[in-house]
């Protein structure tokens, strides 16, 4: 779904034209269109769809009080849209967002019926990515944390690349999940990278209930064979 300000150059536009639909949802005006993904069977995509379907069914089984709790959590935790403006998601969206992350990264079996009471205990302040000191094709990641990470939480690590040369800006759509390490560890090595190429790396803290910190991003080249 593409999100735009002033769809059709009108704040009051409604309806469809050329496959695009202008409407108003909670948070503002949006422009929607049906996407045709080019990688329908990318590894992990079927699992992600299954988790989303499961959470949708589980939402339908929550009590009114539990749903109200998620609505309240969403109001107290506004997000930021693609234009940098704040928006408030629905309780359902908050429920799916946190529980999908908890199942995917923290390996929670069935998700949580109620939102977390506390914010994540840690986040990243500085991320460093350097040519690996061990085997060829490795990059060593180290980071400084704000707070103190807990062993039952996680640091999620994603990578984008390989690229022919260094870039000024990371390519958001190219990042893919690589691995995770325990939340009380502040270093990791990413292996099996192509020698002589550049990679972007990003790391964030993932609390066991699915809450996340902001990404920190760096780029580096892996160690070469000597």
Topology of this structure?
Blueprint: E1 15-17, E2 20-25, E3 28-33, H1 45-60, H2 64-76, E4 79-80, E5 86-87, H3 91-104, E6 122-131, E7 139-147, E8 154-163, E9 176-182, E10 187-190, E11 198-206, E12 216-220
Antiparallel strand pairs: 1-2, 2-3, 4-5, 6-7, 7-10, 8-9, 8-11, 11-12
Helix content: 10-25%
CATH topology of the largest domain, what is it called?
A: Immunoglobulin-like
CATH superfamily of the largest domain: Immunoglobulins
CATH class value of the largest domain: Mainly Beta
- List the strand order in the largest sheet: 9-8-11-12
Global Rg: 20 Å
Report on the biggest sheet: 4 strands, antiparallel
The helix-and-strand class reads alpha+beta
Number of helices: 3
Shape: globular
Number of distinct beta strands: 12
Mean of the pLDDT scores?
87
Q: Could you say what the CATH architecture of the largest domain is?
A: Sandwich
The fraction of residues assigned to DSSP E strands is 25-35%
Tally of domains: 3
Low-confidence stretches: none
Reading the helices and strands in chain order gives: EEEHHEEHEEEEEEE
